[in-house]
Write a structure and sequence with these properties.
By secondary structure, the chain is α/β, with parallel strands linked by helices. The protein contains 10 helices and 10 strands. The strands form 2 sheets. The protein has an 8-stranded mixed sheet. Helix 7 links the parallel strand 7 and strand 8.
Amino acid sequence: MARSLLPLNALRAFEAAARHLNFSRAADELAVTPGAVSQQIRLLEDIVGGPLFVREARGLQLTDLGRSSVPLLREGFERLMDASALLREPPRRRQVSISVAPGFASKWLMPRMDDFHAAHPEIELWISADMEPTDLSEGKVDLAVRYGPGDYPGLTVDRLMTETVLPVCAPSLMDGENAIRKPADLMRHILLHDMSNDGDPSRPDWAMWLKARGVRHPDPRRGSRFNQSGLLIEAAIAGRGVALAKRTLAQADLASGRLVAPFPDGSEAVGFAYYVVQPRDRPPSPSATAFVAWLKRQAVDHDNTMGQL
C-alpha cells in the first residue's frame, strides 16, 4: 500500500493524550472538549485497527501499539513546530558566514567585495576576522579561508592560491641619501617583521633573506614587529621601514603604487598556501557554493595579475 498521512487532528489529539495520559488535560491543551479528544482517538483506532489506550485501575495507559508510535509522532510534531516558527520569521536575504584571518580579510578580500555584491546582490556575507582558526563543526560558520599546509582532517579542502614573500616599502625610501638600490642598503633602514602566528616553517625571516643574498647585517632581528600581516603592510606604506611581506596581501598596494618592491627578483616561495575549507558532514548552501566559485575566479585573476608584476 502507498504511504499516506493519517488525519492530523486525530494524531494531534492522540499525541497530547499520550503525553498527559488524561483526556481532560489533553482537551485543555488543545482548547477542545474531552469528548472531542475521545472522538478523534476512536477515529484513529478505527483506521489503525486496534486500541491505543486501555483503562486500568491506576488510570489511562498506552497499549503496545500506542506506545511504539509515540516517540516518532512527538518528533514529527516538534519538527512541524520548528517549521512553523521558521515560516513566521520575516523574509531574510540569503547569508553566508566566512571565517578569515584579519590580514587576508583587510588586504585581499575586502578590496574585492564590491565585485561580489554586484554579481550576487541577494547574498549577505557575514565575515569574521579571527586570529585563531574557527571550529567549523559548531555550525556557526559556513566556510573559512585558511593559510597553512592544506592538511585539515574532516573538512573539504580546495587550494585557492600559493604564496611568496618579498621586501616592500614606501616609494619615498627609494630616493634620497639612503636610497635603496641593493640588499646591503637595507642596513640603513628599519626592518619590519611579520610575527603573525601562521606556523609556516618555510617562510624566511629577515636574517635568512639577507644571509641568502650575502648581506652580513649586524642585527637583522631588530626593528618593529607586528602580529598581523595587514598592520605590517600599513606600516610599510607609512614609510616606517621595509617589510618582508606576503606578496598576496601586498599585491593591491603594489599595483596602486602605495608600495614598491625594491628587489623584484627577491621573492621567495613558501610551503604554505591559502585554502577554502568547508565542513564535510553538511552540504554547502547554494549561497556558499556561489561565494566559493567567486573566490576561485578571483584567485585566478589574482594569479594572472601577479604574473604581470
